[in-house]
Automatic annotation (TrEMBL):
Alphabetized Gene3D superfamilies for the sequence: 3.30.30.40, Glutaconate Coenzyme A-transferase (3.40.1080.10)
Domain of life of the source: Bacteria
UniProt xrefs under InterPro entries: CoA_trans_fam_I, NagB/RpiA_transferase-like
Keywords recorded for this protein, A-Z: Transferase
PANTHER family, A to Z: ACETATE COA-TRANSFERASE SUBUNIT ALPHA, KETOACID-COENZYME A TRANSFERASE
SMART domains noted in UniProt: CoA_trans
Record-given protein name: CoA transferase subunit A
Organism this protein belongs to: Seongchinamella sediminis
Taxon lineage: Bacteria, Pseudomonadati, Pseudomonadota, Gammaproteobacteria, Cellvibrionales
Amino acid sequence: MNKQMTAREVVAQLEDGMTIGIGGWGPRRKPMALVREILRSDLKDLTVVAYGGADVGMLCAAGKVKKVVFAFVSLDFIPLEPYFRQARQSGAIEVMEIDEGMMLLGLRAASWGLPYIPTEIGLGTDVLRVNPGIKVIDSPYDDKEWVAMPALQLDAALLHADHADVRGVCQVSGPDHHMDDWFARAADKTFVSCDELVESDYFNDPVQARLVHWERCHTTGVVHIPGGAHPSSCTPLYGFDVPHTKTYVASAKEEGGLQGYLDKFLGATEEEYQQNVGGLEAIKSIELPTY
């Protein structure tokens, strides 16, 4: 079974109006090469579900997004993602702003085929006030109330892994795989870009197999794109590109805005993009962050 695809073939399977989950966390292990391919496409009216970073900001500024379901949209070392902030403040997008834990439960509900999962998270907070569609239900066993966090069903998920094989076995060997396994299971289709494409017997080693966090049956396609998470990090291979991220953030205050940034860096292909940011070897040499 060979699930190899190109980034362009992945985007060709996406349609206007879809709900797209994007894995990673802020500036960590985002499938940015796949996001850039969306930026080169005509896709629009997307609902994006993400623990967001520049992926969300770029798609909003490019007019690709109708709605964002999010727990945060941040560049971490730069707290506020500038283009998402502009879109939110101008009212250009619809939003569903929820707690980090509620979003996880929404993905789990979709993964398990449930309409909702009851939780205490959100009770007594403005999350319920700003999201009137999220209901509070009575417990059938006592007099307690619960938030019924609805399932976040995804048409497709976009993820990035450090290693994968052609069958769709994907490895995240950094210290945190975030919620990528739940994104994969909550989606009808899951597309994974990877830095290194390995032979399947690589996963015969129990040490490597323990770093596989979702079943390969959930992986629809694998795209081999070394450096594909840039400018986010892909631990343990490379860190996030702080100077480039600062350039991206600064573009939000410049006359050309995102289009000026894209004209300078995006290119017609991922190869051109990487050349424009200094080349693959430069990406691989970015120092890992220390926390």
